[in-house]
Amino acid sequence: MDTSGYCNENYESLHDDPSDDDELVDIAGATLDFSITEDVPPLDPEYSAGHDHCTNGKTGNTKLMDLLDEPLPGVGTYEDFNTIDWVREKGKDRDRHREITSKSKLSTTALLKSISDAFSGWLLMLLIGLSSGALAGGIDILAHWLTDLKEGLCLSGFWYDHEHCCWGSNETTFQERDKCPQWQSWAELLAGSSVGASAYILDYMMFMFWALLFAFLAVILVRAFAPYACGSGIPEIKTILSGFIIRGYLGKWTLIIKTVTLVLAVSSGLSLGKEGPLVHVACCCANILCHLFTKYRKNEAKRREVLSAAAAVGVSVAFGAPIGGVLFSLEEVSYYFPLKTLWRSFFAALVAAFTLRSINPFGNSRLVLFYVEFHTPWHMVELVPFVLLGIFGGLWGAVFIRANIAWCRRRKTTRLGRYPVLEVLVVTGITALLSFPNSYTRMSGSELISELFNDCSLLDSSPLCDYVSSPDNRSDSGLFSATSDRPSGPAVFSTTIPDRPAGPGVYTALWQLALALVFKMLITVVTFGMKVPAGLFIPSMAVGAIAGRLLGVGMEQLALNHHDSGLFKSWCSPGADCITPGLYAMVGAAACLGGVTRMTISLVVIMFELTGGLEYIVPLMAATMTSKWVADAFGREGIYEAHIRLNGYPFLEPKEEYGSKALAQDVMRPRRADPALAVLTQEGMSVGEVEAMVADTDYSGFPVVVCEDSQRLVGFVLRRDLVISLDNARQRQEGVVSASPVFFGDHVPSQLTSEPPAVKLRGILDLSPFTVTDHTPMEITVDIFRKLGLRQCLVTHNGRLLGIITKKDVLKHMAQMANRDPDSILFN
Fold this sequence. Notes:
This protein is mainly alpha-helical. The chain is built from 28 helices and eleven strands. The protein has a three-stranded mixed β-sheet with strand order 3-5-6. Helix 3 packs parallel to helix 8 (252-267), helix 6 packs antiparallel against helix 15 and helix 14 (383-413) packs across helix 20 (581-597).
């Protein structure tokens, strides 16, 4: 982003309308040059030689324009790819609130306005919940339909998916209830037969054709209309919530394209999920709806409170877990999360979950496809395999993060990144080619997790439930019908199957799951980060669920064949249902997702809301914490923090520890051998001199001092506000020329009537910039930057300005302490 000659541009070219969020800047496909948008001035070009900045002007009178009396549009706003000033934004909101409160006592109209202002936050949460829930329901329905479209078509209505097509059929059997005359495969439609090698090949080719078509449409739409719609969106959401400005990332075009392409990407069969992108979709809805309310449209800090609530809404509709969504926003993405945001997040998540439940996208009265209920209690001995699953999840998370970051870095630094469409098509083709022969990789990620979470009962015909039964325990249909130790009389059907030796179907399914595990682990590494919407929750959970199911079936057979051993004898009697393989799948899913994202509390609550059972919290906690400990042993960054660092976003991680003994003077700029700091003086500079300083530097703000000799600090002025104000003064204040003096103080010396009029800029001056002394430990300074969200901090000694520390300086210093390349900060 080239800003050379910035001061010579007029206000219209500088003004970024806060409501115009659909200007697209391709972070995904282009390189962003942050080197010319530093937050502050480190160096001082030689200027104003021999000019005395401490002298007063001559006598006379002139009419001045004070920006305190006439606020200018654009002053107080921020440029693209800059960090907001949290302290200033909160101060503006306090002033606005005081004004409304004071006026409410004067008239009924003002009182009603005050009540409307207080209620607007809750109304905004209601709108966000309704819109996000409706969009999530539509995405679920369309993705389910397009996924089934790859395998066949419903003759009674092409808009029906496979399950809904066969619901009304009277020609289905119990064993093959997913087959009905109304649903036909592509081989039946095109060749008239569903059996034989030719039919299989035809179905194979149609499966690959639809997968490639969906993926091609997704990547073309993203590339052509909304480059910000690719990826998960959570790393960028975290960066935005920390105060960074990315215009267009939450705009209306991004919302539209992300919604459409998310359906296409999920339906293509790629190893990705829609849960992460739903957070991005919800935040887009929130950002657009914020423009309906003045206090959120004009205040970046207030808008970020709304975006924090929207992140909770996204997880709420993704997993049907309102409480887990609120905790996810608090634990994982939010930078500033006051108590009222907690309440409003809960309300918005509740509304979104209710809206999604009303739509009922899966037809099972549940908010997700893989909702399960377990009834068999777990035993203390099982904590050992649960911890083993946690270890596996931690190892998988650490390996996945390193492999994925290495692949994404290769994509950014080689020719591979120049061909995003080709990359998507190649990965989609390989995925479809290898996934079709295996039924567990052919199905969608949500269906696979649902299959693995499921506890076998009499109504299940899955190969994973193909257990061998004794003659006394088998009905005429070959299914388990009743327990053998029940009294004689009518058969009493049970929902679970006791004493279950594995049949040939189970062993076949285990081999297929083992192959699916290897396939998912490898293909997810190259899929996450491509230029299509891609979430990581479902692929990570699928890997863990497969590993957990494999371990669960192994434990089940071990208990069955060794129930007399000391390990099982005390709690597992013959014929009892001791082990629940579906529970192991659920614990494994939580462990792998925790290892990749480093979520803990929110993850356990989400899984708890999926199962609806309190008794499984301990296994989930044990696996999740073990996973985090193991993964942290190899690196403390989760996948989202790793991608933030890879992209060079200016995100100051609040969880990262700082142990350096450096002082503020060791990090501040300018260094001892550098030229002096570029500063403005309170009075004595002309409009031309100020414009020349802005033209010769690329900094985002300038300290203001009493004069160059004393270097006593007065305040801080932002570059954007300075340029807009000077441009406005030339247009609206008669007689302003380059020789017109500029004053930042209250006291304006008298001037001769023959001299050009002065420009008073006290209204744009921040009189309370945050300062530290030169001997302040950097550990405290970093903590101040984190907790206050500062853009910059001025360094003084006995009241004299010495230098400045910016957020970029802090990030570079921390990168050096961690033996990372400091020049990667703020460079994409």
